[in-house]
Amino acid sequence: MNTENLISDVVTNIEKYKLFDKGSKIVAGISGGADSVCLLKVLSELKNVYDLELTAVHLNHCLRGEESDGDQEFVRELCEKWDIELRIFKEDIAKTALINRISLEEAGRNARYRIFNQVLEEKKADFIAVAHQKEDQAETVMLNILRGTGPDGLCGMKFKQGRIIRPLLNISRDDIEKYLSENGIPYRTDSTNLDSEYTRNRIRNELFPKIKEMFGVNPANQLVRLSELMQDEQAFLEAVALKAYSEVVLDDNNQIIISLNNFNNLDRAIKKRIIRIAWEKINNCRKNFESVHVEQVLDLCRKGITGKKVELPRSTEAKISYDTLIIAHKQDESAVTFSYPVIIDGITKVDEIRGILISEVLPSGEAFKKYGFPEDIKENSKIQLFDYDKLKNDIVIRSRNNGDVVRPFGSRGEKKLKKYFIDEKIVREERDRIPLIAIENEIIWIIGKRTSNDYRARRDAQNVLVLSWKDLQDGGN
Has residue 410 got a pLDDT over 80? Predict the structure, then answer.
């Protein structure tokens, strides 16, 4: 491959995968090795074509003493020669790995991307360019296979993943080194690349050559082809799963609530993807969520026993609540108790559940003009109108108590609050957090759910008590 061909292939990747637009600001990682030097050189060659603003970032891992310092100095001189802004960082990766009890590879990767993102924010840049190439892709797929991956792992890395771009992902190491040689561009060789203590190095230096020797095929080519095929398949299935997700999910704000009646009728492959989508939305990543966890959630849904749950990584849990599956971060399940006198014509704060109750007393005509007639206000509204003249005693806002009763609007007779919660399929751990407006044990308003038949305002009311509830975590002030 000559110089023009390699740059042409990168341009094809940029256009095909929409890696960036003209005028983009790009942070490019550079270690000093052949791949990252090639990436930075190609981006600098395309700088005027795409009107790019480049910032190079080098992290000295402090793992190889003078050799690491030599890499740093080499990168500094190279960027100075090419007139590219360079940011240099130093971090003791061995110490970081020891403190966090992780491998050197993971510690280095975490540090690099943390620093890349730091510079991205400081420069108000658009993308982080990294130098993964064809063999890196093949090694990643093989690593995933050895770990027992599913279809996602067979896809390997993507040309564009969020704000990370990989312009060299389908270009071989041989072509990269040939490009650098033809153009007289020096690069550094990391001595640890020959150290088979690292799993990736064993795949690169021992497994792949052995496969090529025994079977006469280049495993990198076959694995990259596999990843390309799987990415096409996954893109289609993901689109189907996203559509199905929108049809079965009842709520996906602070928790994902899925209708089991709809979910259980779906194909198993789509159900697995829906669970992964829910996990990603709750945790903002898919890391540490393995196939075994997906199977645990599927088994939970199949049994469908209310109150049953499974604990998942990242302090997350999946639980069954009547006809729904709820995936959310675990909450403190200790009972929440509170009780405050309602401040009439004022604001009552309830810190325990992070909400406020706003009350005002208005002549009925003014209240109906402002809020509408009582019969037109839905029971689940968090603004309700009550007949103020019937409220002879002080009212409180509180959590539930034993012996609480309610006479729901539009229904016959009195009902125990506990029986109401059971009939409405409200799970036990949620009941303590539902605020109630009460006179002694008589419930006037189950906020957000039902009002009392005895105290709800009617058109013949003279004075109206308007009560409004705001959840502060949902944006109330």
Answer: no
